[in-house]
């Protein structure tokens, strides 16, 4: 479903962590990248005449290292972003979540969303709480999000929409 802000919203069950901010205009401090784009592709390794068994070994090793880095990254997020959130809906414009924490309209937060556990895929945004529903669902609007994080969120939404279409097609 598309909203007036031009972004599609989807139902989601994501984990996220947050911390309170003094201002919703700050850039997110959180950054995470596995630098996957810096890795040689299988085609490049084949072109360099690297034996196929070695390519498989290196790819397996890369996946294991990604997992270890993801675990380390998640531990860091839990330490630096102590507020736990259960994200119910997400879009490129914001999110709806519930939490044990008490939030008020206008609260500024930095949120780190875990879009995928393995390989770890996260996105961070700064924004404000703009509404709290009767059910206790907190509506959060992004005010500052890095371009690559916005792209990750939009790709996640698009991927989930495609998955929902596939599921509905077979039911």
Number of helices: 3
Give the class-level CATH name. Mainly Beta
Strand line-up of the largest beta sheet: 1-2-3-6-5-4
Secondary-structure element order, N to C: EHHEEEEEH
Q: The biggest beta sheet, please?
A: 6 strands, antiparallel, barrel
Which CATH architecture is right?
Beta Barrel
Q: Quaternary state, please?
A: single chain
Summed over residues and divided by their number, the pLDDT gives a mean of 85
CATH superfamily: predicted glycosyltransferase like domains
Described by the principal axes of the CA atoms, the overall outline is globular
Radius of gyration: 18 Å
C-alpha end-to-end distance: 20 Å
Proportion of strand residues: 25-35%
CATH topology (level 3) name: Thrombin, subunit H
Q: How many strands in all?
A: 6
Count of separate structural domains? 1
Unreliable runs: none
Helix content: 25-40%
Q: Can you describe what's shown?
A:
The chain is α+β, with helices and mostly antiparallel strands. The protein has one domain (10-22, 35-169): predicted glycosyltransferase like domains (Thrombin, subunit H). The protein contains three helices and six strands. The chain has helices spanning 42-47, 52-80, 147-169; strands at 10-20, 83-90, 94-98, 108-116, 121-132, 138-144. A hairpin with a 5-residue loop joins strand 5 and strand 6 (138-144). The mean pLDDT is 85.
